[in-house]
């Protein structure tokens, strides 16, 4: 297989991993494993938004590829499928066309259906409300608000504005709907509802990946991940704080 084809396969697999919430060290390891499977030694450097691969051609000239990752989400099923793909290649390399077709199929898969993800978002808010000693009534309201937050986040993300604005708007909705609910039903606990409904927005995967990268020595990527997590939390809390500062006097 040609070196540029090996690089195409490796960069495609790395892109899918990075775009779906994989750790940096896992992306680098997978790219290196794929290249070695085809007899190519590669140097790989990955950042949360970019992939850099350099190999040495048959004529001794270095060949480099840079791939920019602009959109990222969390879909661990895609990560697992690419991991299985790379291990399968390591055991028995497959032709270029088959490898690219497999990766494109993984990339096209959209994971769980929107209705199921929406329901799980509501259930998450419901369960956390009970965990925080809220009443069943609080949990039901948090369930509804959790789903509204998820819908609004999906709608805002499709508009194409910057990522942290999605979380800011979600914070506004979480606090605003909670204030309205407590105004209508005064027996509800506004703070438990807000805290529970925004749990689906907290960057648990980003924080965990940042810690894993730090343990593997990827300090730059770890700092990037922690900064992203902090900005996410600040965006959500800013939206909540603005509404509460204006709305608590209305209750």
UniProtKB/TrEMBL annotation:
<dbReference type="GO" id="GO:0005886">
    <property type="term" value="C:plasma membrane"/>
</dbReference>
<dbReference type="GO" id="GO:0015744">
    <property type="term" value="P:succinate transport"/>
</dbReference>
<dbReference type="InterPro" id="IPR050539">
    <property type="entry name" value="ThrE_Dicarb/AminoAcid_Exp"/>
</dbReference>
<keyword id="KW-0472">Membrane</keyword>
<feature type="transmembrane region" description="Helical">
    <location>
        <begin position="114"/>
        <end position="130"/>
    </location>
</feature>
<protein>
    <recommendedName>
        <fullName>Threonine/serine exporter-like N-terminal domain-containing protein</fullName>
    </recommendedName>
</protein>
<keyword id="KW-1003">Cell membrane</keyword>
<feature type="transmembrane region" description="Helical">
    <location>
        <begin position="164"/>
        <end position="184"/>
    </location>
</feature>
<keyword id="KW-1133">Transmembrane helix</keyword>
<feature type="transmembrane region" description="Helical">
    <location>
        <begin position="229"/>
        <end position="250"/>
    </location>
</feature>
<feature type="domain" description="Threonine/serine exporter-like N-terminal">
    <location>
        <begin position="8"/>
        <end position="246"/>
    </location>
</feature>
<comment type="similarity">
    <text>Belongs to the ThrE exporter (TC 2.A.79) family.</text>
</comment>
<keyword id="KW-0812">Transmembrane</keyword>
<dbReference type="GO" id="GO:0022857">
    <property type="term" value="F:transmembrane transporter activity"/>
</dbReference>
<feature type="transmembrane region" description="Helical">
    <location>
        <begin position="190"/>
        <end position="208"/>
    </location>
</feature>
<dbReference type="Pfam" id="PF06738">
    <property type="entry name" value="ThrE"/>
</dbReference>
<dbReference type="InterPro" id="IPR010619">
    <property type="entry name" value="ThrE-like_N"/>
</dbReference>
């Amino acid at each position: 297989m040609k070196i540029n084809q090996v690089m195409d396969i490796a960069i495609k697999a790395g892109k899918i991993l990075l775009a779906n919430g994989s750790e940096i060290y896992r992306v680098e390891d997978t790219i290196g494993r794929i290249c070695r499977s085809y007899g190519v030694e590669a140097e790989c450097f990955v950042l949360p938004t970019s992939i850099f691969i350099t190999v040495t051609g048959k004529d001794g000239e270095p060949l480099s590829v840079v791939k920019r990752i602009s959109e990222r989400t969390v879909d661990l099923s895609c990560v697992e499928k690419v991991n299985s793909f790379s291990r399968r290649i390591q055991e028995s390399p497959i032709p270029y066309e088959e490898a690219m077709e497999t990766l494109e199929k993984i990339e096209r898969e959209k994971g769980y259906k929107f209705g199921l993800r929406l329901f799980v978002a509501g259930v998450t808010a419901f369960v956390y409300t009970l965990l925080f000693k809220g009443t069943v009534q609080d949990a039901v309201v948090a369930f509804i608000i959790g789903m509204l937050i998820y819908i609004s986040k999906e709608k805002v993300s499709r508009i194409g504005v910057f990522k942290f604005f999605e979380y800011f708007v979600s914070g506004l909705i979480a606090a605003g709907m909670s204030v309205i609910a407590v105004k209508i039903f005064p027996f509800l606990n506004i703070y438990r509802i807000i805290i529970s409904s925004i749990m689906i927005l907290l960057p648990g995967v980003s924080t965990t990946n940042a810690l894993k990268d730090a343990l593997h020595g990827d300090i730059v990527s770890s700092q990037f991940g922690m900064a992203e997590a902090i900005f996410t939390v600040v965006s959500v809390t800013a939206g909540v704080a603005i509404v509460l500062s204006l709305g608590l006097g209305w209750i």
